[in-house]
Amino acid sequence: MPRKLRIPKDEKEHERLKLLLHLSPDILDQLLQALQQEPPALELRKLAKRLKGKIDLPLGDLVKLLASITNLYMSFNGIEIPVEEFSEAFREALESTGNPDLKLSKSQWDVFKKYIPEILKCENSIGITAKALDVMAEHQHVFLNARIITDLRPLFSKDLEKGAEAAVIIHQLKLDYLESEDSKSFFVAMDSEDLERLEQLIDRAKSKEQGLRRAIKKTGMHILE
Predict the structure, then answer these.
(1) pLDDT category, 24, cuts 50, 70, 90?
(2) Cα atoms in the 13 Å half-sphere on the side-chain side of 26
(3) For all residues of the chain together, what is the average pLDDT?
(4) What is d(CA 116, CA 90) in angstroms, rounded to the nearest whole number?
(5) Can you tell me the mean pLDDT for 188-202?
(6) Distances (CA, A) of 214 to 59, 107, 207, 221, 223
(7) Longest C-alpha distance within the chain, in Å?
(8) pTM score
C-alpha cells in the first residue's frame, strides 16, 4: 500500500499545483533542463529570475511552479520511499482534495508521472533550495519587513495658552514577522541614540558576515543568496 500524502486545503497551493499539472510537456522539459543546470538560491523569486530568460513563462508563473516543485521535493524527501510508491501516493493525494483541476485522466497522469523522477533529481537547485527554505523557517519568528515611523511630540506647560514650549522626536520601529505561518507585527519606540546604536549593530553584523563569507569561500562551499 502506498503511503498517504496530504495536500493542504489551500487555494494558493491548489493554484500552483494546477499550473504544474497542466503545463505542456515542452515547457516542463525546458524547466527541468534549466533546473538541472542552475545553482540553488535562498529565495524562489531569485531562482525564477535566473530562469526567466530560458523559459517562455511570466515570472509570477515561474515562482508558482518552483513553489509547487519545491513542496513536491520536500514531501518526497520527508518520507523516503521509492519514487514509484511516492508517485502513486501523490496521485491519491491529488484526488483526495476533491478539486477537479487536480484530478488528471489516466492518459494525462501517464504523461505527468514520467516527469516526477526528473523533478526529484533536481538536487543541486530545487533540492538544496528546499532544504535552505526549511532551515530558514525553523525559527519561532521569521523576519518579513520593517518600517520606521518618525513623529514630533510637542510638550506643553501647565499654561496651555503659551502653546508648546519644547518637543521630542520619537522613532517607532515596526517589525513584521512570521509566527506559525501567521504574519504579526510589533512596535519599538526609539530615540536618535537608539538609531545610532542599531546602525552600529547592523554594520557590525555585516562585517561579521563578510568575514564568514571569506572563510567559507576558502572551503569551496557555496553560500546561498
Answers:
(1) very high
(2) 3
(3) 88
(4) 10
(5) 95
(6) 33, 52, 11, 11, 11
(7) 85
(8) 0.68
